[in-house]
Write a structure and sequence with these properties.
With about 550 residues, the chain is α/β, with parallel strands linked by helices. The chain has helices at about 15-25, 45, 50-55, 100-110, 115-125, 155-165, 195-200, 255-265, 270-275, 315-325, 410-430, 450-460, 510-525, 530; strands at about 1-10, 30-35, 65, 80, 130, 145, 180-185, 190, 195, 210-215, 215-225, 230-235, 240-250, 270, 285, 295-305, 335-340, 355-360, 375-380, 390, 400-405, 435-440, 460-465, 495. The structure holds flavin-adenine dinucleotide.
Length: about 550
């Protein structure tokens, strides 16, 4: 075994790239970053509007499907996940949202000291370069560029006006003092280019001699000694299987599906499940893979009576303008505007529904191209009560694990989905849309009663790509990792990615995962946030 590295990071996604940067800042610390996918050469990754094309590139995507969903007509839902440098941050929609401050206070209350809002805010700030400048809630000088969109479709502005007409407030900053309201998203972009975690954290430090990045290197299993000490990893690259030793720690950053899968492949997980899959049990840990949570989403599609949408763009013209000048429609993240609102159904008064407005017809993740012009309003409940799990079915690392999302398992989640459709129509039916409004394509004007809308939801709801929670952080015995993100029952191993979230945050998940990795870097290096980041002034958020 080659004993050359202090830390081995598995997965170069949102978390992995962040850690690779922070840990290799010390030239005496040798870091190996393993990524199953290729380098991020595909130009559609970097051109924000290229997002709509990425669905066609199977080689940079794990292309997962859930198991048949009992509450969704037994459909298997498509779950794209990035398999490339930058991970899912290389294929995501770039909306910058942190969730609500109370989400983190919830984490703290659930037994995670050090993860309350006032503890995590400094790490959000440290990660960030806010183009609008520094404030008590926003940082500058960090690697992750957060900017205003360079190009906004006129319909996105119409959408915000419509929301105002429906009685909702305009909000210029969803990560400002109040999350509630409607407005344009800020995006993770620098000068009109996607700022993935690879662009933000990895590219600037690729020349460091103490950082080795291996792409197309798929980890197969952990190397674990009899006493529970994790010694390293086994991985396959170009058909050759190698073992690599970590002098200090292995850091699993493979995401909410693959991190639990890799633990299970290594004999760490629910004993019965492992035996059924033909895997020798090293540590019976029944919680691994459980607590799966995701944002289920429902789209309302409306025909647009004017050719102002992104549906029928001259792609050649847009591409040329983008590649020559980095301006124009090519810089749009497509999901330009949105909102956070209170349905009234939840137990508290923080926003419990999020919307993303797309000035184009978007069906089935963009895989079903509908003819003509139209606009799409996504709406998702933010804190689902249903819980799913990841199940390993084979000892073969090439076989995907089974994803039991269990959407709408809890009746409250269906009520929330119905509220999402009602609220979407309420906004879309305002006068601001009058000059553009054609007929409603989905659900369709004939769907008005509860039974019809439930039928529609079961037929059409899809993920909005935020699975988390499968290696839950906590102080209790059944938590997978402790608040330092160390895997219970083993030494020399941490999990650092979306899987550690105890509960799903009320917003998009890229920035929260980067925050988790920023904080984890300090935990690993034995630093406190006071050593590395200026503490921001407290501020009220609604
Ligand atoms: C289509 C889409 C749109 C989204 N839109 C937004 C958005 O607009 N805003 C937002 O905030 N969030 C968005 N998200 C969610 C956000 O991008 C993710 O929550 C976040 O990137 C997850 O980070 P992660 O580090 O946990 O996992 P990932 O970023 O997925 O990283 C995991 C990495 O591990 C690698 N890996 C897995 N298994 C192995 C193995 N065995 N060996 C080696 N490497 C391995 C993977 O290839 C991948 O690169 C979106 C996600 C998707 C898929």
């Amino acid at each position: 075994m080659n004993k050359d590295f202090d830390y081995i990071i598995v997965g170069a996604g949102s978390a992995g790239c962040t850690l690779a940067n922070r840990l290799s800042a010390d030239p005496d610390c040798r870091v190996l970053l393993l990524e199953a996918g290729p380098r991020d050469w595909n130009p559609f990754i970097h051109m924000p509007a290229g997002l709509s094309k990425l669905v066609n590139f199977k080689s940079i995507n794990w292309n997962y499907y859930t198991e048949p969903q009992a509450q969704l007509n037994n459909r298997k839902l498509y779950w794209p996940r990035g398999r490339v440098l930058g991970g899912s941050s290389s294929i995501n929609a770039m909306c910058y949202a942190r969730g609500h401050r109370s989400d983190y206070d919830d984490w703290q209350r659930l037994g995670n000291p050090g993860w309350g809002w006032s503890d995590v805010l400094p790490y959000f700030r440290r990660s960030q370069h806010q183009a609008r400048g520094e404030s008590e809630l926003h940082g500058t000088g960090g690697p992750l560029a957060v900017s205003d969109l360079m190009h906004v479709n006129p319909l996105s502005e119409v959408f915000i006006q419509a929301a105002e007409q429906a009685g909702f407030a305009r909000n210029r900053d969803f990560n400002g003092p109040a999350q509630r309201g409607f407005g344009l998203y800020q995006v993770t972009q620098r000068d009109g280019r996607r700022c993935s975690s690879a662009a933000a954290y990895l590219k600037p430090v690729r020349q460091r001699r103490n950082l080795v990045v291996r792409t197309r290197a798929q980890m197969l299993k952990l190397l674990i000694r009899g006493d529970g000490q994790v010694q390293g990893v086994r991985y396959r690259r170009r058909g050759i299987t190698r073992s690599m030793h970590a002098r200090r720690e292995v850091l699993l950053c493979a995401g909410a599906i693959n991190s639990p899968q890799l633990l299970m492949l290594s004999g760490v997980g629910p004993a019965d499940m492992l035996r059924r899959a033909g895997i020798e049990v090293l540590l019976d840990q029944p919680s691994i893979g459980t607590n799966l949570q995701d944002h289920l989403d429902i789209c309302t599609l409306t025909r647009c009576s004017q050719p102002v949408t992104y549906d029928q763009l001259n792609e050649l013209k847009v591409g040329l303008q983008y590649f020559l000048h980095h301006t124009g429609e090519g810089t749009s993240n497509i999901a330009e505007a949105g909102g956070f609102l209170v349905s009234g159904l939840d137990r508290d008064d923080r926003p419990d529904v999020q919307m993303h407005f797309v000035p184009a017809l978007l069906d089935d993740h963009g895989r079903n191209r509908l003819p003509g012009d139209g606009y799409t309003l996504h709406a998702c409940p933010l804190r689902p009560e249903s819980r799913g799990h990841i199940e390993i079915r084979s000892a073969d690392p090439r076989q995907p694990p089974a994803i039991h999302a269990n959407y709408l398992d809890e009746p409250h989640d269906l009520e929330m989905m119905l509220a999402c459709v009602r609220l979407s129509r309420e906004v879309l039916n305002q006068p601001a849309f009058k000059p553009f409004r054609g007929h409603e394509i989905l659900p369709g004007e004939e769907f008005t009663d509860r039974a019809g809308l439930i039928k529609f939801i079961r037929a059409k709801a899809e993920t909005i790509y935020h699975p988390v929670g499968t290696c839950r952080m906590g102080s209790d015995e059944s938590a997978v990792v402790d608040p330092q993100l160390r895997v219970r029952g083993l030494s020399g191993l941490r999990v650092i990615d979306a899987s550690i979230m105890p509960t799903l945050v009320g917003g998009n998940t890229n920035a929260p995962v980067i925050m988790i990795a920023e904080k984890a870097a300090d935990l690993i290096l034995g630093k406190t946030e006071a050593d590395t980041v200026p503490r921001a002034v407290e501020s009220e958020a609604a």
